Predict the structure.
Amino acid sequence: MRLKGRAALITGAGSGIGRAAAELFASEGAGIAILDRDGQAAESAASDISATGAEAHPVVADVSSSEETARAVDRAARLLGRLDIVYNNAGVGSTGSVVDITEEDWDRCFAVNVKGTYLTSRAAIPHLQAAGGGSIINQSSVAALVGIPGFSAYSGAKGAVVSLTRSMALDLAPVGIRVNVLCPGTVYTPLMEPLMRERGDGSVERGLEITAAKYPIGRIGTPMEIARAALFLASDDASFVTGAAFTVDGGMTAQ
Ligand code: 1HS
């Protein structure tokens, strides 16, 4: 049990990588707050995890809203009695070059991926400090590390999350909070579906085949393969790791 007695808040935990991380962290002994803007998805993830005997609570918020996020984070800390771990996993995709993308899509991409990380962290840090320190894991992407055609806003936003992580790590090291960022390669989740459909000219399966061919390991990742890296960063196994960008991408960016 690598997270026994710890309390973790995971954003976007109603589906995809966030849900896998919620299941994994719970199986390692943590109490979990499942934050999602989709209340039904949060309820369903929390009830499945509770059925295993672990503690899990759904909390609803759109992380781009400061009011909703502040309220949800405080509620999570109250329900769990403390907060030690925050996984800023909630994200949205977007496609288009700077010429093609709409201003609305650009703003939404930065509002969720970048501002959401800021707002959730801002609300959670006092609770982590009250618990004597903790671990924050931000979610970036390989799109922050290499150019990907047609991913202008997404790449810009995920690059900002890497830089933000380094700054947060320095600000929070003195109070015992480690801050790291994951850079996953493609994993098939609800976020990826429209991107894959577009890449496959209307066929998600074709899009996934084209994408898998970019990965030296010969396939894209699974949510649990990313969750296991998040578990390492969340746990005391990573006690000397802060400000690090951890790539989990089947060799994609090694090329
Ligand atoms: C959406 C996720 O963060 C991955 S960005 C797309 C990378 S690739 O598989 O299209 O090369």
